[in-house]
Automatic annotation (TrEMBL), chain A:
UniProt GO cellular component terms: cytoplasm
GO BP field: protein neddylation
Keywords on record: Ubl conjugation pathway
Name this polypeptide is given: NEDD8-activating enzyme E1 regulatory subunit
Any Pfam family matching the protein: ThiF
Residue ranges constituting the THIF-type NAD/FAD binding fold domain according to the UniProt record: 19-534
Pathway: Protein modification; protein neddylation
InterPro entries recorded: APP-BP1 (IPR030667), ThiF/MoeB/HesA (IPR045886), ThiF_NAD_FAD-bd (IPR000594), Ubiquitin-activating_enz (IPR035985)
Highest taxon above the source species: Eukaryota
Gene3D superfamilies for the chain: NAD(P)-binding Rossmann-like Domain
GO MF term set: NEDD8 activating enzyme activity
Function: Regulatory subunit of the dimeric UBA3-ULA1 E1 enzyme.
Repeat among keywords: no
From TrEMBL, chain B:
Enzyme Commission numbers on file: 6.2.1.64
PANTHER family: NEDD8-ACTIVATING ENZYME E1 CATALYTIC SUBUNIT, UBIQUITIN-ACTIVATING ENZYME E1
Domain E2 binding, residue spans: 335-418
Family to which the UniProt record says this protein belongs: Belongs to the ubiquitin-activating E1 family. UBA3 subfamily.
Highest taxon listed in the record's lineage: Eukaryota
Record carries keyword Nucleotide-binding: yes
List of catalytic residues: 201
Summary of the function given for this chain in its UniProt record: Catalytic subunit of the dimeric E1 enzyme, which activates NEDD8.
Source organism phylogeny: Eukaryota, Fungi, Fungi incertae sedis, Zoopagomycota, Kickxellomycotina
Organism of derivation: Coemansia javaensis
Gene that encodes the chain: uba3
Molecular function as annotated in GO: ATP binding; NEDD8 activating enzyme activity
Pathway: Protein modification; protein neddylation
Protein name in UniProt: NEDD8-activating enzyme E1 catalytic subunit
InterPro entries: E2-binding, ThiF/MoeB/HesA, ThiF_NAD_FAD-bd, Ub_act_enz_dom_a_sf, Uba3_N, Ubiquitin-activating_enz, UBQ-activ_enz_E1_Cys_AS
């Protein structure tokens, strides 16, 4: 199924209503990014369909499911998007058809080929282009060899990769992102009020307010910004101190000075000013994340609009005009005030933001000139959004999924090292034995559920046999995980609880619907963040162990 | 060696984390029997509800009831995947149940297009477990208190575990509530901030934000201009009227930013909602239900937090029972109020109080009605008391009986007179 203009009949007004609850999170820009995205999914098990469901519903542009598996009993039991009547048919085709039914605006396509063959294709043929041309690749329940090959290919093409595995009550979701830049991170940021060093227009306005000339009701409606700047002035004059590097005790003195100015104890605006003294009297500081981005070598030879803007931001911050500050976002929090004072103050900050934007744009022109790029290479809208969010920029670079050695410290600190080692050991078990720990050997009827008449085992014998296999595999898996940690990762006295290894083996790496749905939810949400370049994707591993109620977001 | 697939495998093999996992119980019942027998009530057939129903069906639950008093809106379709455009206007519970029946014909699912308060006690007594997928704090408080009352009245027969899920944007949480055994919903009420409200004096006199202008139009102007029509947040004409009024006011005060989307958001108190967060929380809920019913693995003790906006943060943690809890604790509230203050002021204080968070409290003392919100006749009869001073109505340290739509039973609140 290809995108078909006749099918996409939805008007903007219809979309605004249909997508209202998500547009409030990522607005039109985020939605447009989703609608322009193409997601390639390797695998078609429950993990794949649960992940895709959460991408089709919000209106992703196009998805491609790559798998040659056919629908079996395990699928009918756990995958909501296949039915008993689909048994024996290509699973990728079945889930694509059923997922497309969720949202007529989304185009889905099945490629009935083994993911291993598609990721291994050496020539720049259609298969290779499939991954390199994707907005995002998701590997669902794939063997390590496929995940690693996909990781190499995506890494080279700069395409983000998500990989998820679901094994009974356990699951993991991992991300490999070479570089991901975010302007609209929606991260919490402190109000930027420039109280210790008011810019000229703010200084002029504050000086124009004569508190002595106001009666009590008028005093009760002076914005706290004005009160705090005046209190700071008075404190600095009295203490013969600079309004710089105030200690906590000094900030408390300013708070006391504000309270002393109040006509009564109940004035809300004075209380707001006193409460804001500790944070508001701190020196201006560029947030740590943004400081690291400014120092990033990627801005030395900027190759993308984001890094061009960062290069311009560097020059801006270093300029006499900015004196170490970022462009102002133009927004201030609500505060107790009369309408006129508040609107005036708001306009002053907005005008400051417009001036800052013009300064940054001038630096950007110089940067682009130096790089030999046309002046309109970065759109005016992009400059606006960048300036509004300059204090919340984020850059994410994770380890690839084809790395040899994980980030042991973070995994250990989060108590997820044994889980991670068991997932990796299980992959090696699979590579060596052609089956996952706890899964019956190939040829057994588990995968398709079609028992032959020759089989005469009773259910009790089957279960007893399976219990014995699970016990054997659990021991082998625990030993393998310990060996991996000790021999390859250099972990001294590696700890792998036997019960945890047993939980892995108990699953046979078969999916339980609920756990795949949890993992699929996380996969989809990370996918949305990666596609929209809004909010911040996780670096880079989530471990879900619902047997021990241990759920952690960590880094490997 | 053939073996069971899906959830069945987990009910037949040994359980590593359950020492005494009984594959055949004393009465001959297997975990699979328990699962097939369990009767689960799903409260809410919305974003979480659709996911919960799908998850239950794919986990081997055979007897499901679903209750929701709402009908399908176009804005539900970005996440409530059991509904299609043709279903808009139909009851959510009915359409969701019909979809599940089609996908999984072996499941016995019953829809109730009703309020939870309208179901009889026998119905609740017949349940094994309740899963809540609600966006209303009020309904969650009600069912929590109701089930605690049921447990008290009927002992084990009234004991119904509640698995409660909630989401907002890219954040979600889940709670496993075992009545009388661990923290109840009310114990954690403080974690839910009260709805954003704007002071009337700001709305009326000193608007600064577009929201203030919208509140002015919807809360003050609408009832004045249309005294007999309730403002309907889903009626495009109603919201357009609010936008027009609010825009005029905003222009007068040089305030920017009033538009349809913001107006509807403020009027309806819209909470952003997406499929992925609902998927995570709903699946975590049903997984706990599956573990509680089958005992195949220990259940979560007792809370899970997920936030996905800046990286991912996941935390499973035990929320502790609050000794003074109005529902599962000592069940008596205390307040202090000036003897000179009025009954109306006391009622406002009860609404604003962090522990009580009541909606429309009715008060009586020692069998005498102080103020009743309804019926109308009683409201009119008791209304004069609103302006009376507390000291003229009852003594210092009197225990008032307070009833409120958020609570299924009365609440006892002792009021001590504070120096004014």
């Amino acid at each position: 199924m290809l995108p078909d203009d006749t099918k996409r009949m939805r008007s903007d007004a219809d979309k605004a209503r249909l997508y209202d609850r998500q547009l409030r999170l990522w607005q039109k820009d985020g939605q447009a990014a989703l609608e322009g995205a193409r997601v390639v999914v390797l695998g078609s098990s429950t993990l794949a369909s649960e992940s895709l469901k959460n991408l089709v519903l919000p209106g992703i542009g196009e998805f491609v499911v790559v798998d040659d598996a056919v629908v079996g009993a395990q699928d009918v039991a756990t995958n909501f998007f296949v039915q008993a009547a689909d048994a024996g048919q290509p699973r990728a085709e079945r889930i694509v058809e059923n997922l497309c039914e969720l949202n007529p605006d989304v185009a889905g396509r099945a490629v009935v080929r083994a993911p291993a063959a598609v990721v291994a294709a050496e020539d720049p043929d259609a298969d290779a282009a499939l991954l390199a041309g994707a907005s995002l690749v998701i590997a669902c329940a794939q063997p390590a060899a496929v995940v690693q090959a996909a990781s190499r290919r995506c890494w080279a093409a700069g395409v983000p990769l998500l990989a998820a595995t679901s094994a009974g009550l356990l699951a993991e979701v991992r991300a490999a992102v070479r570089e991901h830049t975010v302007v609209e991170s929606h991260a919490a940021a402190r109000p930027d009020l420039r109280l210790t060093a008011p810019f000229p227009a703010l200084r002029e306005y504050v000086d124009s307010v004569d508190l002595g000339a106001l009666d009590s009701p008028a005093l009760a409606h002076v914005p706290f910004v004005v009160l705090l700047i005046k209190a700071l002035d008075a404190w600095a004059a009295a203490a013969a101190a600079e309004k710089r590097a105030l200690t906590y005790a000094q900030k408390k003195e300013v708070a006391a000075a504000v309270r002393a100015m109040a006509p009564g104890p109940d004035e809300e605006n004075f209380a707001e000013a006193a409460a804001a003294a500790t944070t508001g009297c701190a020196d201006y500081e560029i947030p740590g994340d943004v400081a690291r981005i400014l120092a990033d070598p990627a801005a030395d030879q900027p190759a993308t609009p984001f890094w061009l803007l960062v290069a311009a931001l560097r020059r801006y911050v270093a300029s006499d005009y900015a004196a170490g500050t970022l462009p102002h976002s133009g927004s201030i929090p609500d505060m107790k005030a009369d309408t006129h004072s508040y609107v005036t103050l708001q306009r002053i900050y907005k005008q400051k933001a417009e001036q800052d934007r013009a300064e940054l744009a001038a630096h950007l022109r110089a940067v682009m000139h130096d790089a030999g790029l046309p002046a309109d290479h970065v759109s005016a809208a992009a400059i606006d959004v960048f300036c509004k969010n300059a204090a919340r920029l984020r850059v994410l670079r994770t380890a690839p999924l084809h790395a040899d050695r994980p980030a042991l410290d973070a995994l250990a600190a989060d108590g997820a090292l044994a889980h991670y080692a068991l997932f990796r050991a299980a992959e090696r078990f699979h590579a060596a034995h052609g089956r996952y720990p706890g899964a019956p050997p190939a040829g057994a009827a588990a995968e398709t559920g079609t028992e032959t008449e020759a089989e005469t085992e009773t259910e009790a014998e089957t279960v007893a046999g399976l219990d014995a296999l699970v016990e054997r595999d659990a021991r082998a898996l625990a030993d393998a995980a310990r060996a991996l940690m000790a021999d390859e990762w250099g972990v001294e006295s590696p700890e792998v609880p036997d019960a945890l290894a047993a939980e892995f083996a108990r699953s046979g790496f078969l999916e339980l619907h609920n756990i795949s749905a949890v993992a699929g939810g996380i996969v989809a949400q990370e996918a949305i963040k990666l596609i929209t370049h809004q909010y911040v994707p996780h670096d880079n591993t989530c471990i879900i162990d619902t047997a021990n109620s241990k759920l952690v977001a960590t880094r490997a | 060696m053939a073996c069971a697939v899906g959830f069945e495998r987990f009910l037949k093999l040994k359980a590593p984390h359950v020492a005494d996992f009984e594959l055949v119980g004393e009465d001959g019942e297997t975990p699979a029997d328990l699962l097939a027998k369990a009767k689960v009530l799903v409260i809410g057939a919305g974003g979480l509800g659709c996911e919960i129903l799908k998850n239950l069906a794919m986990s081997g639950f055979k007897n499901i009831d679903v209750i929701d008093m709402d009908t399908i809106d176009i804005s539900n379709l970005n996440r409530q995947f059991l509904f299609r455009k043709k279903d808009v206007g139909q009851p959510k519970a009915t359409v969701a149940a019909e979809f599940i029946r089609r996908r999984s014909p072996g499941i016995n699912i019953t829809a109730h297009y009703k309020r939870i308060q309208d179901m009889p006690e026998e119905f609740y007594l017949g349940l094994s477990l309740i899963i809540c997928g609600l966006d209303s704090i009020e309904a969650r408080r009600w069912i929590n208190a109701y089930i605690h009352g049921l447990t008290e009245a009927h002992g084990f027969d009234g004991f119904k575990p509640i698995v409660d899920g909630g989401t907002e944007g890219l954040k979600g949480n889940m709670r496993v509530i075992l009545p009388k055994h661990n923290a109840c919903f009310e114990c954690g009420l403080g974690m839910y901030p009260p709805k954003t409200t704007y002071p009337i004096c700001t709305i009326a006199n000193t608007p600064r934000l577009p929201e203030h202008c919208i509140e002015w139009a919807s809360v003050l102007e609408w009832p004045r201009v249309f005294p007999s029509t309730k403002l309907d947040g889903d009626d495009v004409d109603h919201i357009n009227w609010v936008v027009e009024q609010a825009s005029q006011r905003a222009a007068k005060f040089s305030i920017a930013g009033v538009d349809f989307s913001l107006a509807q958001g403020v009027v309806k108190n819209i909470i952003p909602a997406i499929a992925s967060t609902n998927a995570i929380v709903a699946a975590a809920c049903v997984n706990e239900a599956f573990k509680i019913v089958t005992s195949c693995s220990p259940y979560l003790e007792n809370s899970l937090l997920y936030t996905g906006d800046t990286g991912v943060y996941l935390l499973a943690y035990p929320l502790h029972q609050v000794e003074e809890c109005l529902v599962c604790g000592q069940k008596e509230g205390a307040m202090s109020a000036p003897a000179e203050s009025t009954l109306e002021e006391l009622i406002d204080a009860l609404k604003a109080h962090g522990t009580f968070q009541l909606k429309a409290p009715s008060l009586s003392v020692g069998g005498t009605s102080l103020y009743f919100q309804n019926p109308k006749a009683l409201e009119e009869q008791t209304r004069p008391n609103l302006a009376k001073k507390l000291r003229d109505l009852f003594d210092d340290g009197a225990t008032l009986t307070v009833t409120d739509p958020t609570l299924p039973t009365g609440l006892r609140v002792t009021v001590t007179f504070a120096a004014s």
